[in-house]
Amino acid sequence: MPLKKEKPVPPKKIIKPVVEKVVEKKEKEKEKEEEEGGGKSSKTFELLRGFRDILPEEQGRWNLVRDTVRSIAESYSFDRIDLPILERSDLFQKTVGKATDIVEKEMYVFTDPSNRSVALRPEATASAARAYISHGMLDRPQPVKMWYVGPMFRHDRPQAGRYRQFYQAGFESFGVDEPIVDAQLIVLGAQIFRELGLDIKVEINSIGTPECRQAYLAELSSYFRPHRNKLSEDDKRRLQKNPLRILDSKEEATLELLQEAPQILDWLDDKSKEHFMKVLEFLEEVEIPYVLNPHLVRGLDYYTHTVFEFVLVQDEGDKSQSALGGGGRYDGLIQLLGGRPTPGCGFALGLERIVRALDAKGVNPPERSKPSVFFAQLGDAARRVGLKLFEEFRRAGVPVVEAFGKSALKGQLEAANKLGVQLTLILGQKEVLDGTIIIRDMESGAQEIMDVKKVVQIVKKKLHTDHPSDVPAVE
Ligand code: HAM
């Protein structure tokens, strides 16, 4: 199968109108103010830039994503690992790479009270590799397949879909160098998006081994050398320090030059080519469509061979961050960290971006199931019984809402109405003395008086007959 390479389309020249420039300048000034401690003088505390609260009303979408990730991880036999948020900073310098944007510009590094340089993890693959070595996982049956979810930190310029604290769910498979591992990881990722109903495309490339990359980089550097004066300062620096990174430059002039630049696929050695072809063949076998992107190199140094990204298929003109996840093979990583040579491959998903894509599609599941029963009380004696009754309902698996803080019946019934419950239980002083309770059907308004000792069973029966799916089968 020939490797079809897609030439990236150069962006249209954009001339910024004056108004836009002024807005941009104002935004930058505001940003600077905030970075320099804006909000210091105000009485309330502001969130740090690039950090956000995930509010209760967003948790339904988050739960959906987390539950989907977990169930797919389990069905592909990945074991969960939780890794620390703080690590020695040299772990990332060594693996992600000193000359990468992540380490050079974006890492939260500081000296801890023991005078050690530590970093808030910008990613978790390096930590997973460290854990693999330090827990002797090489002696376990290979591959060792682990998944994680948690916050990462990068001090990048915040924008839609890009935060300074963001959540990733990641999958790492250590110990097997077969191309089928790469392919199955891509299938796994694609399944997560399929289950979530998100339309993505898989972009894929191979960056071969460090050896064949060396020869390619020399060629790439000499291609760009005569054009140096057309490059931005950032790209000039990239060219000098980490020429591969120039391939994902967003600068117009560089993008134009990249059209004719040498492509890494032409520099792969036979083994790397064969590995890559097999990955593509496996993907075709399982009908996962992919796009070959010869400029995809990813922003971390530890990759070898296959690299890939899950890109959201979105409207033209939507400029927000569309890479919902990315990964690749990292056959040299374990050795780099002092372990025995061990291949590996993995990827991570950006959960904020996935949640955002679900939001854009109008997906908004409730955070928890809506309770069908409201408990209304009148007076302290009723509250005391109510407290116990609430526990009985909870143990029976029937969610009940209450408003113990409210005293007037009217207000409580209004609350019950607002919540749209099916039944309201009413307990006044008389009922407490009689050992009874009133059950009110909220739709018909009909009320019945019951023995309080039987109320849990009766409510369960009522809910079950009217809405069989409302009550969990807990006895
Ligand atoms: P990454 O491409 O740097 O790879 O990050 C993976 C995903 O995390 C991105 O595709 C994006 O969705 C999300 N992400 C990255 N930065 C931000 C940000 N500032 N705000 C919001 N979301 C963000 C890695 O981190 C590798 N460790 C992936 C990997 C695992 N490779 C092999 N195994």
General description of the model:
- The chain is an alpha+beta fold and 475 residues long.
- It has two domains: 45-208 and 268-360, 2-Layer Sandwich (BirA Bifunctional Protein, domain 2), CATH 3.30.930.10; 373-466, Anticodon-binding domain (Rossmann fold, 3-Layer(aba) Sandwich), CATH 3.40.50.
- 38% of the residues lie in helices and 19% in strands.
- The chain has 16 helices and 16 strands.
- The protein has helices at 18-35, 59-75, 89-95, 101-106, 125-134, 179-196, 210-224, 233-241, 252-258, 270-285, 333-336, 351-360, 380-395, 409-419, 429-434, 455-466; strands at residues 79-80, 86-88, 108-111, 117-120, 144-153, 165-174, 200-206, 290-292, 304-312, 323-329, 344-350, 373-377, 400-402, 423-427, 436-441, 447-451.
- The strands form three sheets. Strands 1-5-6-11-10-9-7-8 form an eight-stranded mixed beta sheet, with helices on both faces.
- Helix 2 runs antiparallel to helix 6 and helix 2 packs across helix 12.
- It is elongated and about 95 Å long.
- Residues 8-17 and 470-475 have low confidence and may be disordered.
- The structure holds histidyl-adenosine monophosphate.
- The site of histidyl-adenosine monophosphate (HAM) has 25 residues, from strand 6, strand 10, strand 11 and helix 12.
